[in-house]
User: What shape does this take?
Amino acid sequence: MNHQTKHKGNGLLPYPVIAAASNGDSSAMEIVLHHYGSYINKLSMRTLFDENGNPHACLDEEMRRRLEMKLITKVLTFRAA
Assistant: This one.
């Protein structure tokens, strides 16, 4: 199924993309993951300190993967009306 990745910019995913992703369509799931990717990355940021005590923002890859898996699980259990 071909899904249009651009939409009106209202922050919502188009219903056909959500419905297709919930039915296991991998390309639709990629669109969902891409849509929420920035938010997931923001939630996965950690502050680490170097040997001099200087803070550095770092992406926690394990946390990012865990959040992506939670999103995938929830999308797959979503039942579109």
